[in-house]
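Lest this sound abstract, we let one protein speak, letters for residues, whole numbers for local backbone shapes, and leave readers to judge:
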Amino acid sequence: MGLTREAAPPSDAPGRGMVGRTVTTALPLYLTMLASTVGGLVDTAVLGRHATASLAAFALTMAVYVPATATIAGAMRGVMPFVAAHDDDPDALVPVVRDSMWLGIITGLLGALAVGAVPLIGLVSGVPQRTLSELGALPLLMAASVLVAAVGNSATSTLVGLGHSKPVMRAGTTGTAAAVVLSLTLVNGIGSFDGFGLIGAGIAMLVSSLISASVAHWGLRRPAVLAGRSLSPGRPHAGALIRLAGVGVPLAATVLIKFAVLGVLAIAAARAGTVSAAAHSIAVSLAGLMFTAAVAIGQAIIPLMAPYLKVKDVRGMRAAVRAGVTTALGAVVLLGVALAVLRMPVLSFFTHDPDVRHTLVALLPLVLLVALTDALQAVFGFGLVAMRNTVPSLLAFAVCYGLLALAAAPLSAQGGLRALWLALLTANTLLAIAQASFFHQRSGRLAGPPGPSRDGRARRHSAAKRRPLTRSHEE
């Protein structure tokens, strides 16, 4: 009969140094996300200078591409807790890595189908024929990019689950740098080369995804726990894929709900007027930049919680999430103060319209509060991810954001943009309360039944060792 190895408790006391470790892991992830955002802005600027029709076609494709890639990324985050649970056991970890690659391939193919169908989606949606005719091979190039990015996500999710965020940063920044250089070269050309226009942007994004995925998979072979192991996908295992999907699919659905409701809010803001629509779009971008920090921090706490999950140490798990909350609040407040101090140059970067800037300045306190509450719910949500319990988050989003979607149109008609953002703040606040409650409840369930304390068990074990051994009468 084989021996069962009991996981050793973490060597440090819960809470000691956790904030510092969270920052160390989260910062490279946040910088990677920022670099990706900057790369997207460069693509938009380059195409805007090339031709308005090209920019319109690119925007149409990105309207499908961005939710598709975000949904895939959400699904792949479900891999992280499985990786973190086996960070010291290569024999158990390697099958998880292989299964995560298959999950990336499957979700990538689904996302690629959606992006490849952009011409059909545009036709059904009533997009002008001029824009549709401009698309050319762009949807196919972007569909291939989605598939490659999904396979890359399988590697980055594994690295994050192991607490190795620097290789993720190298993969992301290398890919983004390649995208920027190629976009500047391939869209408008350089010297005697006239460029490929819109197709050049698609080529740039596909090559960028290939480079990023290659660097990520190369980095996957660096951690000691995976060194010398074959990581080829092999054949898929349905049961393992279902377990991974059981955590990842609710996360993906949550992302879709959020994207859909933010789209409803954008429509409601547009109905309130051109100034409201422009101000709302910029405000969402600013809140998104701050929320991205919380996403990076939330991912960072998953490997931080893993040692405590192994021994069902509820106090340690909750301390890890508190460290994430503290870090997220500090990050959002820091970014918010910077935005408040530099509000005029920052807002002038987005718009030269004084009416839009005035509206944004008045809206700024609400934007900061929305980002703050969104950050709180995200960190508690990632605490649930670490426990592989993501359905409560999906239910909370469905209720809170579902009600927000129903209230958006009448609220914007009655109170304009301010009422819309007050409603968003209310939804995020309720969501943060729900996520925190679910995390507290589900983490409490992991504790064993009441009984003797660990110290008491240790004292009895020590006393038993000191007692002399006697032979029983059966011997």
Summary: The two ends are 22 Å apart (CA to CA). Residues 391-445 form the longest helix (55 residues). Confidence is low (pLDDT under 50) at residues 1-9, 450-475.
